[in-house]
Amino acid sequence: MAKRFLIALLFVSVWLSLSFADEWRPNTRVFTYRVPTNGATADQQRETIISQPLKHTVGEDESLLDIARHYHLGYRELIEANTGVDPWVPPVGLEINIPSRWILPDGRHRGLVLNIPEMRVYYYLSDSQVMTFPLGIGMEGWDTPAGKYQIGEKRTDPVWYVPLSIQREMEFPRKVVPPGPTNPLGRYWMRLSSTSYGIHGTNNPWAVGRFITHGCIRLYPEDIAYLFPRIARGTPVEVIYQYAKVGVSEGNGYFQVYRYHGREDADLLTELIRQVRDLGLDVDLRQMRNLLRDAKDGAIIPLPLE
After folding, report:
1. What does the alpha-carbon distance between residue 225 and residue 160 come to, in Å, rounded to a whole number?
2. Which residues are catalytic?
3. Of 186, 212, 211, whose CA–CA distance to 199 is shortest?
């Protein structure tokens, strides 16, 4: 039954991709941030939250998958922000939340930083500018290994040489998948150093924002097409697992969490407290714990002051 569902989803995905081929545009938004290097903490100099949340009114024949792709969000991001809304047939005229605001994760602010729990990559253009894109990531048990890499081999229209471990899962095993609409790598592939893991496109755009891969990283076809010629071999890549983030905007503190694969709130609270103290913020920790309990994944929550 599960395999039949995935086949049906793939069919619908390919059909929708062809139907909206002229509509999808790459994400070209660039955001400005500030991380002081002179020892300043939570003051007006620090700005580590990018973008602003939006609203969208559902139109005719729009699904939440269409809307997510239009705003360069992952599937789970949009679903989490609009609980109870039918993802396939949302009511026409309904105003939904577009959760397009993010706290920058820890890590070196250069090259690519992939924060797996939030299914998002941050592409640092300079010391003050960043872009961000949603990702499709590994299923449970197929996590991308954390660590520091660099962009290695790059390929256009890649051939997929199917690992034996994946062949065993296939209903109709194949050793080699040539370029084309059935190739899950899409049109572009960038290897992480000399590993078997890569950042690539997809023949199933609706898998972005889901646990879907065997450890590789998928982007929307239009986004990988934009990034591929701009990211040179040797570009640093850092894969991190940051489940809780604290950021500052206009002198005010906020937090954002992701309960990736059932991450416990106790662990998230411990990490939030560490970051709050590192930033020198005066926060009511008991009230923060209460806010965490009700916080949706990905929501930006103001930190309660003491």
Report:
1. 18
2. 200, 216
3. 186
pLDDT tens, 224-254?
999 999 999 999 999 999 999 999 999 999 9
55 burial via Cβ count (<10 Å: 0-12, 13-18, 19+): exposed
Backbone angles phi, psi at 75, to 5 degrees: -55, -50
Q: Determine contact, residues 195/54, Cβ cutoff 8 Å.
A: no
pLDDT of residue 177: 86
Give me 169's structure tokens. 């899962």
Lookup: tokens for 6: 């995935």
Please answer whether residues 273 and 285 qualify as being in contact, where contact means their C-beta atoms are separated by less than 8 angstroms. Answer: yes
C-alpha torsion angle, residues 79, 29, 236, 273 (rounded to 10): -50
What is the domain partition of the chain in residue ranges?
Answer: 13-51+101-240, 244-302
The overall pTM is greater than 0.70: yes
| Domain 13-51+101-240: homologous superfamily in CATH | L,D-transpeptidase catalytic domain-like (2.40.440.10)
pLDDT of residue 22: 47
* pLDDT confidence tier of residue 43, bands split at 50, 70 and 90: low
Task: Tell me which of 47-51, 72-76, 103-107, 286-290 is least confident.
Answer: 103-107
Whether residue 292 contacts residue 246, with contact meaning beta carbons closer than 8 Å, is answered with no
Give the closest residue to 143 by CA, choosing from 211, 242, 238.
211
Please tell me the predicted confidence (pLDDT) of residue 13: 45
- Burial 136-147, CB ≥16 within 10 A → b, else e: bbbeeeebbeee
Q: What is the pLDDT of residue 169?
A: 77
